[in-house]
Amino acid sequence: MTELAVGEQVRLERVEFSGQSSGTAPLTWGQRAIWSAIGRTRPGDWYFNFCRTLMLPRRYDLPQVLAAIRYVLERHESLRTRLVGTDGDPLQSAAAAGVLEVEVLEVAAGDREAGARVAERYAARGFDYEQEWPVRIAVLTKGGVPAELVMGFCHLAADYEGTGYLLRDLRAALAGRTAGLPPAPRPSDLALYQESAEGRRFAEAAAAHWERSYRRIPVSMFTEGRHAPAEPRYQRLELISPALAVAVPAVAGRLAVSTSTVLLAAAGAVLRDRTGHDTCALLAIAGNRVAPRTRELVSTMSLEALVVLPLEGVTGFEEAVRVTGRAAMAGYRFGSYDERDRDRVVAAESTRRGEPVHPYCCVNDLRGAGQGAGAEEVPTGVRPADLLERTRLLELSPLEQLSCRFCLHFADAPGALSIRLTADTGYLPLSDMAWLLRETERLLVAAHDGDVPLAVPGARGWANPR
Fold first, then answer.
1. Distance separating alpha carbons of residues 206 and 342, to the nearest angstrom
2. Which Pfam families does this UniProt record tie to the protein (predicted)?
């Protein structure tokens, strides 16, 4: 038995697996980028962990659930992959066979928070990248019957979109519908393609995009920290807004664009107001599952796409949305790249300007990844402005170290849309962080009823554009 921090106990079930592939390969571009970010973030690298949950119909017993877990471990190479040579340039090493210890936790029938507690525990502890399997799994039972599956992932093994295919395969295994499925794509095959002549040609085109874009952007979106940093330095806030769950789809529908474009445009408009930069450089996380070889790959494919918003002379939000749509398409086209090429471009541009050049400004849209409530929980038949009083602003656990200055995450929440902001308080005090979240909400709620004029860049006197 293992004692949990919350006073509960679990037993461990051994799941023995024998995979369909094994061997070592270079890191993929996505894995290389995450490994670099992990190195810059330690000891807070747990920040990159994430969890997925699957509610289980109460018609499956524990042996069936464990068999489904065994199936996905054997099917998806990334779940059996660890790193070797982490003191230098590591390789990924897939094991042909092994054992994963799955936690089985009996919870009270009315306990709706047990899964969230397990997910929090899994996400808050860093992985041993050489010794530990890159997934942690718990089966929550009620009255001895499996009710919920919680999976905690190392970001080297998967990203949100990729784990959607993993959950699909778990459901198929539980229902006995796996016969005839084609083999799952393998990260090791992708790594070898990316090192091939064809892969290098694409990498060179992506590097040329970064080079052109870097010549257009500010030195950084947040320059010359003028504030005494908080302790810990990297603070985190979350705004949970039912109003945005109504406003954002309505604005997107009226303007015939995606909701992601609307949110990205709002982030750019508010950042222009705060920083005074007419050209906003955003590192938007791209899913990069376009080619057939990557479409259903369970691995980390997401990378930072450089989206450059030319907002000079843009006075209304609807125009900002149109500009953002075009800029996002250009950025996402080259959202898959070799980070070693990007590092070379960044170093060359920094040398040309005589100072370090990098946006240090990230935006990540995690909605639709199965983390929140269904659409039926979103309020209907009500104006977003009437829901503002239900908005909650929460302080989350801070970080000691992060490789960015501004990280904005959009996510699902029960009956609401969540915006989480992590920021370097040496550049953005906690009060400014709260203002940015509230102003993003205000702008989008106002846009529900029509076009909204944008603020004059830097009018608040906070900006220090370079």
1. 9
2. Condensation (PF00668)
